[in-house]
Amino acid sequence: MEQVNVRDRSETIEVTRPAPDTVEAPAAPTAPHREKTGVERELERLQPSTYERPESLYRQLLPGILQVPADTVLAVSRKSSLWPLTFGLACCAIEMIATYMSHHDLDRFGIVPWPSPRQSDVMIVSGTVTKKMAPAVKLLYEQMPNPKWVISMGACATNGGPYTRYDRVLQGVDKIIPVDVYVPGCPPRPEALMDGFLALQHKIMEERHK
Ligand code: SF4
Fold first, then answer.
1. What burial letters (b/e) apply to 114-140, b meaning 16+ CB within 10 Å?
2. What angle do CA 195, 201, 205 make, to 5 degrees?
3. Exposed, middle or buried, 169 (CB in 10 Å: 0-12/13-18/19+)?
4. What DSSP element (H or E) covers 123?
5. Cα 79 to averaged position of ligand 1 atoms, centre (Å)
6. pTM for this entry
7. 160 lines ligand 1 (CB under 6 A)
8. Is the minimum distance from the CB of 184 to ligand 1 under 6 angstroms?
9. Across residues 39-52, what is the average pLDDT?
């Protein structure tokens, strides 16, 4: 409340003025109401809607759990624990043995040599397959349980190699057993065999739905 002296009437009247900090700002002019155009309504309609997925009970209890299809789990298990049958046929076998040794160390891929076809799932045909040896190779392959894979290591196992004119040499081991990966070379270096194993692991993951 404040007293103001009005000169004309020489009397004091009381007027009420709002405090400076309570002065209200003039209202902004409101835009005239406008109907939305069809394009604006359509844009509103096309906005992606958010959907909150309810969490299942096991996710609430075990929030870090990983959910993957069973065939992927099986394929990862198979490719990470390949057990090659240990047998060699010719000079390529020396390179295969070198690949198992400490310098290259196939074990770090989970690849462990196994001296029996009963528990092995990979056959590395490393060397020249003669027609005399072919029935034994086929028998060993048939003794391996499914699923099983074959790596043809070197030119001899793939197509006879330097012995293409020898009647006593089988012109490719795929004449008697199915081959999954061919490793070229005469002989292939250990890195080439490791590359063949990586290709086989890739193939196992690719064929996990079959
Ligand atoms: S491919 Fe060459 S190194 Fe391998 S077994 Fe044949 S001849 Fe020997």
1. eeebeebbbbbbbbbbbeebbeebeeb
2. 145
3. buried
4. strand 122-126
5. 27
6. 0.70
7. no
8. no
9. 83
